[in-house]
Amino acid sequence: MLIPRVARRYALAIFEAVPPDLGLERFFSDVNDLQRSLAASPELRGFFASPVITDARKRETVEALFTDRLSPYTLGVLVFLIEKDRENLLREILASLDELYRDERGIQTMQVTAARNMDEAQRASLAGVVSSMTNKPVQAEYSTDEALLGGVVVRVGDVVYDGSVKRQLQRLRDRFLAGTV
Asked: What is the pLDDT of residues 112-124, one digit of tens each?
């Protein structure tokens, strides 16, 4: 996700201002809760993006929805973003906060695309291999793509490991066409 510079600046200021008594773990539990809520609800995304809904109405709704779920600091951050007319950047700010948290904790993110759903044992094994390669704990995001035919594609930072059957067949075809087989 391409994150606008202004979202990164807000995220950095919010990150640096997390109260010590709240702690990063609790704050990022809130961040993840907000990210899941936004991902699951197109209505909530539309609500934050709407220029028609007044700031007062947005503030009331946020307080009604999240007072019992979020820490006072996180709720205050949401209200602050509404007051500064930056709620339309909420998803990007949350993504940038998540990135800052992972950097702070030394957590490596990997995106795994498999031809079919992987069971927990396969996921744990793959995470262990990548963790030992990067010497960092790994946070994984999984998706499926039947077009791969089999195998997995793993993206760790800027590096892609393509172990899919589709890619292996493409390489074999290229070798046949080049006459090197």
From this structure: 999 899 999 999 9
CATH fold of 5-103 reads: Peroxidase; domain 1 (1.10.520)
- Residue range(s) occupied by CATH 1.10.520.20 in the chain: 5-103
Q: What is the pTM of this model?
A: 0.72
pLDDT, tens digit (0-9, with 9 covering 90-100), for 8-41: 999 999 999 999 999 999 999 999 999 999 999 9
Query: For the chain, where are the alpha helices, taking DSSP H only?
Result: 5-16, 24-40, 42-49, 55-66, 72-83, 90-105, 120-134, 165-178
User: Cα dihedral angle (75, 46, 38, 65), rounded to 10 degrees?
Assistant: 40
Structure tokens at 92: 């990007």
